[in-house]
Design a protein that fits this description.
The structure is a homodimer. By secondary structure, chain A is α/β, with parallel strands linked by helices. The first copy, chain A, has a single domain, classed as Dihydrofolate Reductase, subunit A (3-Layer(aba) Sandwich). In chain A, 22% of the residues lie in helices and 30% in strands. Chain A has helices spanning 36-39, 42-45, 57-68, 76-80, 131-142, 153-161; strands at 4-11, 15-17, 69-75, 106-109, 117-119, 122-127, 146-151, 167-173, 181-182, 192-200, 205-212. Chain A has a nine-stranded mixed β-sheet with strand order 5-6-4-3-7-1-8-11-10, sandwiched between helices. In chain A, strands 2-9 form a two-stranded antiparallel ribbon. In chain A, β3 (69-75), α4 and β4 form a beta-alpha-beta unit. The radius of gyration of chain A is 16 Å and the shape is globular. The mean pLDDT of chain A is 93. Chains A and B meet through β10 and β11 of A and β10 and β11 of B.
Chain lengths: 213, 213
């Protein structure tokens, strides 16, 4: 069976987005800074149609996750880029444009039913009956690869609290956001974590945990 | 001039204490688990009058901080073990007993004026006129060593937001508390951090940051 993985950038004070997200600034004020470490990497630039980029230990962490990913699950706001018109418009392509960077099937958790949206390299499938059916569908297409939770925070929290998450990798950026959306909020304190790997550079520290059942 | 250091254990979800602290459980429900990694170390056991203990990389991280510390600043609740009778009783010795483990002068931030309390190896001095006067007094006795913020979270936050903190070391325990007291809350997002060292073991990951001015 495939594993369910969450893998996300977080500020040292625990935020995955800044306050006051908009369509233009879907990660909120200051939130883009969380991802500065990744924008310069070859493994991130290639699927976004950009040439060049650094090849280093951070790059290998990202490349490793991309290689292992067979399907993605995301929340409706990550699809639509916030609570703008794309969230409920059944004809919208969402925030990601005609050529999304995922390269694998994406399952969007939403309350708004709509037909699948096939785009170049990705089909977005909209799942309205909850996190377990979305996980079942994602597992079915992932083959022997992993299912990757793209975000946001509440999606990670739901899968963690429901006992479905196998691995959590947090990329801790050396910065404070002060306010915004916290990744690890309202979690069940009986969940057990086991640290399995730490990779560090001045730009970012990758903390990987296995969720112990 | 001495540096001002904060050095504290935190759960992956950002808590330095669990909910519902009491005199018997001053770190709140589940909060003791944050410190399991340190209780077994030689460098922690010796100042607490306990023999034996592990000597390893975690131990050296703790020993290094203890060697460098010339004075400690703490909040009144850390002195009194919560908001019990020791907080305001001018005759109390506080939570730490007759033989506190600090080995250097301790300055307690409080609104309750009282005379200094000399105990074995430590004198507690009570400072009622704010964080800067407490820092000045601590620096004066620290010599060429560091001033160490013992906690709690709000004391760390006040010194960070006021621009006085030089170094923050967070010992991330592989656990979730779900609720309680967050270390990094309400901080100024313009504060810049620079990662200076990561030391990791299965028990704990030590993330050290310099605060950039």
């Amino acid at each position: 069976m495939t594993r369910l993985i969450a893998d996300i950038s977080m500020s040292l004070d625990g935020y995955v987005a800044g306050p006051n997200a908009t369509l233009e600034e879907p990660l909120g004020e200051g939130g883009e800074r969380l991802h500065e470490w990744i924008f310069k990497l070859e493994s991130w630039r290639a699927p976004h149609g950009l040439e060049g980029g650094e090849i280093n230990a951070n790059d290998e962490v990202v490349a490793e996750t991309l290689r292992a990913t067979g399907a993605v699950i995301m929340g409706r706001r990550m699809f639509s880029g916030g609570s703008g018109p794309w969230e409920t418009d059944p004809n919208s392509r969402g925030w990601w444009g005609d050529n999304p960077p995922f390269g694998v099937p994406v399952f969007v958790l939403t309350h708004h039913s709509r037909d699948p949206l096939p785009l170049e390299g990705t089909t977005f499938t909209f799942v309205t009956d909850g996190i377990e059916p979305a996980l079942d569908q994602a597992r079915a297409v992932a083959g022997d690869k992993d299912v990757f939770i793209g975000g946001g925070a509440s999606v990670v929290q739901q899968y963690l609290n429901a006992g479905h998450l196998d691995e959590l990798q947090v990329h801790v950026a050396p910065m404070l956001l002060g306010s915004g959306v916290r990744l690890l909020d309202g979690l069940d304190p009986t969940i057990r974590l086991e640290g399995t790997r730490v990779i560090s550079s001045p730009d970012v520290t990758h903390l990987r945990y296995q969720v112990v059942r």
